Amino acid sequence: MIDFWKRFSRNRSAVFGLAILLTVLFVASIASLIYPEDPFRLAGKPLSGPGLNGFLLGSDSLGRDVASGIAHGAKTSLLIGLIATLAAVFIGIIFGAFSGYYGGRIDDLLMRVTEIFQTIPSFVFAILLVAIMKPSIESIVIAITVVSWPGVARLVRAEFLSLKNREFVQACHTLGMSDLRIMLREILPNCLSPIIVIGSLMVATAILIESGLAFLGLGDPNIMSWGFQIGAGRTMLRSAWWVCTFPGIAILITVLAINLVGEGLNDALNPRLRERQ
Amino acid sequence: MKIINLLSTAVLVTLLSLFGVAHAQKSGGTMVFLVQPEPPTMAGYVSTSGPIGLLAPKIYEGLFDYDTAGKMIPVLAESYEMSADGKTVTFKLRKGVSWHDGKPFTSADVQFSIMNVLKEVHPRGPNSFKEVSSIDTPDSHTAVFNLDNPAPYMMRAFSAYESPMVPKHHLEGQDLKGAKLGNNPVGTGPYKFVEWKKGQYIRLDKNEDYWGSDGPYLDKIVGRFVPDASTRTAAMENGEVLYAAYNAIPNIDAVRLKERDDIGVTTDGYSMINPMALIEFNTKEGPFVDAAVRRAISTAIDRQFMIDTIFFGYGKPATSALSSNFSATGLHAEMPNYPANGDIAAANKILDDAGYAKDGSGVRMKGTFDLIPYGEDWRRGGEYLKQVLGDIGIQVELRYEDVPTWLKRIYHNYDFEMNLNYFYQLSDPVLGVHRHYGTNMIRKGTHFVNSSRYSNPELDKLLRAGMTQPDATKRAAIYKDIQTILAEDMPVVNLFELEFLTVYNTKLKDAYGSAMGAYASFGNAWLDD
User: Fold this and answer.
1) How many CB pairs lie under 8 A apart between chains A and B?
2) Given B309, B397, B399, which is nearest A46 (Cβ)?
3) Would you tell me how many other CB atoms lie within 10 Å of the CB of residue A98?
4) Structural domains in chain A?
5) What ipTM was predicted for this assembly?
6) Which of A40, A135, A237 sits opposite B383 (nearest CB)?
7) Stronger pLDDT, A110 or B228, i.e. the higher one
């Protein structure tokens, strides 16, 4: 662990990203403490500028607190990012593991299915799914999952393909281990590092997709998120810049932080880069 | 026989407008205007949905139009005669009018349009032409309406938007709601349908064979669909579009654009429309079956806040089931249960008294709140209302769908609990208001009628009385009773009278002249460079 941290902290920007990410996580976790009220609550004079009428970052057209929205929205954005990523990684591992391990017809079948999903532009596909299912937090998570798992499946398949003929796997065969046990206990742990890296980057993509959907009016109208705030404020961008700007900055730095951390993880976990100094 | 010769009025109007106009109209040019949102069809004879109203009346025409003073302007009819008992109305139709496909327009089309189309599938037609029992066509340019009872309000319903004349030869024997004509309109109007690029625009070209001697002047008009509000504003600012009615430009931008020399903003052109923002409730199932709950909701809402924050001050709090614009005819009466600034405490008390206790987290009941998918303003409205409802212990989830799904949910499947919407109360309650409340207006599949499925025999009786009562004082008394019942039962909670804004480029001239505003034909509009 210490060794890992050493390698990770060698990348300064990754540490910087981690610090930002932890801050965002901290804000999200204490959102209900610093802003106990519903972020949709009308808190005061509409369209107050930052610092005016007791609003740290201003208020929107209905008098909702932008800062409160950002704090609560952090929770939503991170949660959507995490859940969608976990679901996508889960599906991706199943598809990738089976097709990589067994090869042949199963591989053909699973990879053709994966390709169907890969050929559709992911954001357009997400819009379509949400529009069909009606905008809600569940449908957004499902849409993000559906558009992001094929990448994981491809990666896992490649790892399995290269690992399945190694000596340690063959040794397992001779010991009489079941296929499932070999896949889960022997091969999977060995390809975890690239999965962690791609997963961390997927969280960032998921947050961006969610914001994009909410911006287009396809967000869950009952849940505060950064994309929703931007969408609600964009019509008045010229007269009340703060409504869009602050949530936009929040998205920017969060996604940047996650990407930096992902890169740091890659450096730290990739054995081929370990010697690169 | 009382003879009204509309020709002389028409001549007078024409003369007046000639004197009023200092420079001659110029021909040519393309006029692009905003249509928001994209309409599902262009069948104005089936649906009165707003975006259809922006397009269909350019293609179809009515028997008459109405000028801003409410005077009738002859269009497809040249004149009419009403018998002394008011039960026979004879229309002399204009000669030499042909449909866009070349077939002549005749009295058979009028007969078919009224009896087989408007009376059957139009949302308001059954009301407007309720008393019309048959139409005789003694010759191809005379139509005689036989009425069971006098129906003076019918004479206010002949505009192209309200009662378009449709080609019999395209609709006869077909399923009216699904007919091909819906997407390929063929009318008699100043502009012909050319193409519909889904998601982008509808293009109409000048009808070269138009019967009118002056106009149309524009070569083509294009209705563009731009889903994003700030893009619409930008398009108006850089002169890409010249005309945007019905709040296609959000009020916040309209207020800003007003300062520019080349852009005008007006609230004119909506006097026959009389729009009212409201919430419809499902009175048959779900959490809002009890009138006390609906009354509590009406009591809680800060109407003035909605007007000020969402519509930037354009609007007026509702004070009864009728718009205050009906004060002119004495029909409007102020009622309790419509506080302009909302009274949360009183609303909570109504619910407490009705026996709806709050649970541990302060929730009395839960529900789903559908929002009219006509843009950001309504969404903001829903977000505000959700907060207010939360304050009185009603927890709602907002639902925002696309237009066809929403229309189907509310008016076909009745699969809703409460719905934010706006209705046009039009020029007379018989035309615009009866349809929300009458038992005979529970018409599955017809848009913008009694979706609450509210049915009250006592009210039905009053509505019928209000329809036929010619005496103004007696009629006012009837409508006072109607409003009293509705303030108590509230199948629909009126929120506020909308004031729509039209934003236009000053290059565009004479887009008006009709009381129908944007729902008129653009027949006289022209571009001044």
Assistant:
1) 53
2) B309
3) 20
4) 2-276 (1.10.3720.10)
5) 0.78
6) A40
7) A110
